Amino acid sequence: MYKVLYSYRAIENSNDNILKSQLHKLENSKENHFMEKSPFYENNVTSLDPDKDKAGKPTGTLTQFTFDPDEDPLVNVAHEMRHQFDHDIGNMQDDLPDNTAEDPSEIRGVYNENRGNDILNKSHLTKYGETEIDPKKLNNPPNNKQVKDVQK
To answer: Is residue 107 a contact partner of residue 101, using CB atoms and an 8 Å limit?
Structure first.
C-alpha cells in the first residue's frame, strides 16, 4: 500500500488537475473502493455490482495491484484509478468483455497512464498490451468523462 500512497502523493503534488480531481472524487465517494495485493500477479479492478455497471449506475470496486520493483508504480495506479473512477461515476457501459486496445475503458486507462508518465517526464504509451491504440482515440478517448462532467 506504500506504493499506492506514494502514487497518490505524486498526483497531489503534480499540476495535473484531471488526475487530482479523479482522486478527490474517489476519496469523497459514497461508493466503497477496496484495494489489496493481487494474488494473481496482475493489476485489475472488479466491480462490486456488475448489474449497476451495465445500467450505467455508480458502484464500488475491488482493485488488485502487483508492482514491478523496477518500475514506478504511478502509471499503474493512474491506469487503475481511471477504472475505479469510471465505476464510481457509472461510466462502464461501454466496457468490452475482453480487455483489448479497442476497449474504450482500457483506452481511458492508458490515457490516464500517459498523464502519469507526464508527471514522471516519461514518454507516452501507444499500445495496450502488444496492440497499438488508435492515436485519435488515445488523444481523445471515448466517453472520457471527467469530474466536471458529472458534478451536479
So the answer is: yes
- Ordered alpha helix ranges (H), the chain: 2-12, 17-27, 50-54, 74-88, 104-119, 135-139, 147-150
Q: Residue 5 contacts by C-beta under 8 Å, 6 or more apart in sequence? A: none
Supply the pTM of this predicted model. Answer: 0.96
How far is residue 77 CA from its own chain's centroid? 7
Every domain of the chain and the residues it spans: 2-150
Q: Please enumerate in sequence order all residues whose Cβ is within 8 A of that of 4, keeping only pairs 6 or more positions apart, or say none.
A: 35, 65, 73, 77
Per the structure block, which three cell numbers stand in for 76?
A: 499503474
pLDDT surpasses 60 at 152: no
- Name the DSSP class of 100: -
pLDDT computed for residue 59 by the predictor: 98
